[in-house]
Amino acid sequence: MSPTTIRRKTVSSISGLKKRKVSPIQAGKSGGGHDKTNTWPERFQKITKPASLNCWTAFGSVREALRLKHYSIRTEQAYCDWTRRLILFHGKRHPLEMGAAEVTQFLTHLAAERDVAASTQNQALSALLFLYSTVLGKR
Q: Is 94 left (phi over 0), alpha (psi -120 to 50) or beta?
């Protein structure tokens, strides 16, 4: 047997009547199979605009939109962080209350006063474009 071959062992199912071959990873599970009762939570369905202007609903909406589009977890963390920074920079105002002028002011602050790199500015711009175009539906 080659070193890349996974050894399989026979594990009896819950009822004890059937025997099947499973990988060592699955052997630790009770049945070794797929749990078919597990479905996608409702929060991953269609995303709507937030009903109230609560700042924290913006984070949840961004997270849900990123997960629906299968973005990586690190992208999700970064985009939520840039959304949080924008909200805090403008005194905890909701993004729906802000427009292009506030976003430009925030990006200018990053470039002039915070002296961030060009790639960081691009990441912030991409995150805020995603927030306004995809999540909030603004142009």
A: beta
Question: 70 in the Ramachandran plot: left (φ > 0), alpha (ψ -120 to 50) or beta?
Answer: left
What gap in Å lies between CA 72 and CA 70, rounded to an integer? 6
Q: Do 107 and 131 contact (CB within 8 A), yes or no?
A: no
Q: Report pLDDT for 42.
A: 57
Q: What is the DSSP letter of 12?
A: E
Residues 6+ positions from 78 with CB-CB distance below 8 Å:
123, 127
pLDDT at 107 over 50: yes
The percentage of residues in the chain with a pLDDT greater than 90, rounded to a whole number, is 47
